[in-house]
Amino acid sequence: MSRERIVWIDNVKVIAIALVVLGHFFQSMTASGIIGSGTAFSFFETFIYYFHVPLLFICSGFLYQKYSQVRSISQWGRNVLKKFIAFSVPYFVFNIISYIFKTAFSDYVNNQTESLFRNLFTAPLPPFWFLMTLFLIFVITPTFTSKKPLYAVLAVSFAVYIFCSVQHFADFPETVSSVMLYEFWFVLGVTLAFLDFKKLFSYGSSALFAVSFALALLGNRLPIPEWILRFVCGFSACFGIIGVVGKIYAGRKQTPFMGFAAKYMMPVFLMHTIFAAGMRTLLFVIGITNPVLHIIAGIAASFALPVLAEMVMDRIHLDFLVYPLRYIKPKQKRALQ
């Protein structure tokens, strides 16, 4: 199916990935002791983890339903092959680069590596676990032509989400628990593509985000289980962001800044931890421990250096490492005449 850019969903993805980058960055700052664990940065980190990854899975499910056809064994096989090519190259390349960096500079990293096999197959490093989880979700999820089976899958995935949340993942490998948790959000995105979703677009959706923020502030003081708090905050924040961004960009052309950001968000997603850790290591080596300098330099490295790296890679055709489908295109069967 031909694919045209959907401005509002591109921009929702920009917001989600930017928050993933900032979340990883402030996690690293806290783990390394550069900023304290009781600061506003810690609340920011806790709050965004309620919704930024679910938001990415909602976007992925929406685009999957809108632009894919996976309703037969042959279509399923072609889709799995296409997703394997798209995800496996950046997954293995940047996971291995991250592993090498953590091994070479083990005295300066926050989390020591265990084994390359574990990092690649059972407990991928952040943010690469997202690629493995999303690939596995693509493997097990079809696209839909009617609402009844879709609603049944949504209900089952929500039940699995509740089960996994209550179990606290203790009995499952990380890759399995990730699929169990995020399949629901992905199918929620599929459902959104199936409905007249534009009715959700409203500036009033900001109230949903405000509710999520208020609940996150109250946190453990509320007499409800943590998983319910996490779900309500995540659901409210996701649809608050979708509603407002959709309202702003519905029927509008892309703006230059957001268009630039959307173009380079994938390289930023793949490389931000590597460049942020590299910058932090460099500052430590030269004796700089000032938190303000670390924050400024680290955030700049997280966003700017992956963009520069991708620009260079584009020129020498190493963009294959980020976008392998630009060079490898699975053959599509010709329709019968």
Number of helices: 12
Envelope shape = globular
> Which spans have pLDDT < 50 for at least 5 consecutive residues?
none
Broad structural category: mainly alpha
Portion of residues within helices:
55-70%
Secondary structure tally: strands: 0
Q: What radius of gyration results from the CA coordinates?
A: 20 Å
The major beta sheet can be summarized as: none
What is the string of helix and strand elements? HHHHHHHHHHHH
Average pLDDT for all residues: 90
Oligomer: single chain
Classify the beta-strand content into a percent band. Answer: under 5%
End-to-end span in angstroms? 18 Å
Quick structural overview:
With 337 residues, this protein is mainly α.
Q: What does this protein look like?
A:
The chain has helices at residues 7-31, 40-48, 52-67, 73-104, 116-122, 129-140, 147-167, 174-194, 206-218, 226-249, 256-285, 291-315. By secondary structure, it is an all-alpha fold. α3 packs across α8 (174-194). The two termini are 18 Å apart.
Helix and strand topology:
Elements: H1 7-31, H2 40-48, H3 52-67, H4 73-104, H5 116-122, H6 129-140, H7 147-167, H8 174-194, H9 206-218, H10 226-249, H11 256-285, H12 291-315
Helix pairs in contact: 1-2, 1-3, 1-10, 1-11, 1-12, 3-8, 4-6, 4-11, 6-8, 7-8, 9-10, 11-12
